[in-house]
């Protein structure tokens, strides 16, 4: 498998991840997302309903903690991650030799040997190496962060050793995990050291929304990806490890980075490895990560939106249908309901009484099954009555909308309309 | 003319079983038919398209629930329940009376109607026959049910007789209240408890009315099965041949097969969809409790002979695991169970058309029970009464 880039604009890498799957016939366009699953199933959906969504990602993400048995997945390209980004996981269970995951049967403590045994059972196409990813909590000491990086590198070496000996994983690739919390020098060390190993790609861990502010994240990711072995526009930044300075630098250097990126312009490279960031899903954060050099994302975000009874409604299309949403959304999305702090400004809350007799589709012009067939009033009713179909319909719409967002993002990079695109998507973020 | 016609396609030469085509405003329905129940205007996580793909031609909505939420005005604005839930085929709605008596405390029946306290705001509400029909007119169902005076089938004495006579009077009020007789069919409900004399009296009275169809009510509420089947067969003996017969609340496979033999055409029950949500999958030899440990490593489909989307793709082990993590597990089993019910009725129907229904019943019983000693005696007796002898 390899990542073929067709162009880089303002740090955004446009391309195709190719040679995927047993037949090497599959590919995934980047920037893009994996198909989020639990127990190898997209939540709420069956095969029938899932396949009403057009252009599903060619790569399915499964996580060890949501996988309980050998599943028949032979026709899918699989990326296996350690944790389900949506599930909270208790801290304090990591040791020098083990990490813990929480499945339906409770806690499983994994050594690298056990971890690799499970991988051999799943036979993914690619998988993240075992990692100590517990440093995302606020106030984690620098010492603890350093330990996480050391342990993660040690796990990677052991995994690589076992990987080579495992027949079942002959065609699989290991993704090295970059840790380092919010400590720049640890991030850089983690990236540099990981890049020295024969990995097929890189996982950026510990960048969840809760872990740090958006500017810190963007700067850390940008600096980190510069350390990864990719032919990419080298940033001229020499960032100081101090967080405050990073943030100052961020503002100062934005235009400089842009200029550098532009100067490099079009370029092709024969081979490359993909960079995936875990725990990042909000559209604004996705855009900033893409600008910092990330190729791939998980797609747990539409699921989270579904679980709170909301529908993604932010505009992303260059030519929105006349009635769409922009002016209306500004008004709608600003109201947060019942103190629901998790709701973002990219969505509308279908539980709101105002939708009781609203016979419009969730999003005008949306081609998803839900919008083609059902109304806001109906989905509101399903939520009111706690009916299971609400989750099905919202999941269909939210997944479609999210995939549409990535498609539009790629088009914007391809056609040099990135700024317009950002304006559209981020317009109503100002109220946040 | 009533918006319904029934054509008898074939009759079993031995028993009272029959295969018909029931033509309703939204589409024809092949009977005998099982009607899945979509209480709140949705089929438990299954989309309208999936239900259509399973071959479902008619399903139920509950007037009580829909009348409460989202309310008849809103559904009328959405072009009826068909429009609201985006379902192109037929719908049957109940009167709402049964739910009130069974779900709500403090319901009181007077000549005027059923008085109950709203579980949402605590207000006293009176549901009259006229109101029930008015709500069902707003819902726009293809078949509406009269409001009847429901007494538990285990109650005896004068209350049963009173309820029977009142149900006849309420039928007349419902007929008079129907605003859409040209596009909505109103079915009468035969009452009379477990008393053959009262049942017969009710049948005599109600069949004098020119209603498009009849339901057999007041059964499957915990009575003895011996009493149950006798009331069913008594009813079908006196119902007109050219009108559909709907046995309310019946959905176990055995009951379906026996009651088809006794001459019933239509059935409904929440059981197949409810039990699916607890991980119970219906199969020709009974059911599988998919949450049980024994299925954790069982890589067979639920039923190797089943052609439903679930069985074509997923194993018992997969469903067992999925039940621990996602509601899609329920959807998979719901689809299988609805398919099981619909397929059973299709097979029953085909056997009637092929003039092989008695043989079908025998094979069905052999698969369902390990040996003839296990056949429930009521079923043996009921089938025997229509000349199908199992032993
Ligand atoms: Zn949609
Ligand atoms: Zn099946």
3D architecture notes:
The complex is a heterodimer of chains A (432) and B (391). Chain A is of the alpha/beta class. Chain A folds into 2 domains: 2-299, Alpha-Beta Barrel (TIM Barrel); 310-332 and 343-431, no CATH class. Helix content of chain A is 37%, strand content 17%. In chain A, the strands form 4 sheets. A 9-stranded parallel sheet of chain A has the order 4-14-13-12-11-10-7-6-5. The longest helix of chain A is centred in the C-terminal third of the chain and has 26 residues, at 389-414. Mean pLDDT of chain A is 85; it is low at 232-271 and 322-338. By secondary structure, chain B is an alpha/beta fold. Chain B is built from 16 helices and 16 strands. Chain B has helices at 48-53, 63-68, 72-77, 80-85, 97-103, 129-139, 158-177, 196-206, 225-238, 253-261, 271-277, 309-313, 316-322, 328-353, 357-368, 377-385, and strands at 5-11, 18-23, 28-31, 33-36, 58-61, 90-93, 108-109, 114-117, 124-127, 143-145, 185-190, 213-216, 245-247, 266-269, 280-283, 286-289. In chain B, α10 (253-261) packs antiparallel against α15 and α11 packs antiparallel against α14. The radius of gyration of chain B is 21 Å and the shape is globular. The mean pLDDT of chain B is 95. At the A-B interface, α1, α11 and α12 of A face α1, α12, α13 and α14 of B. The structure holds zinc ion (2 copies). One zinc ion binds at residues 302-303, 306, 308, 310-311, 336, 339 of chain B. The site of one zinc ion has 8 residues of chain A, from α10 and α12.
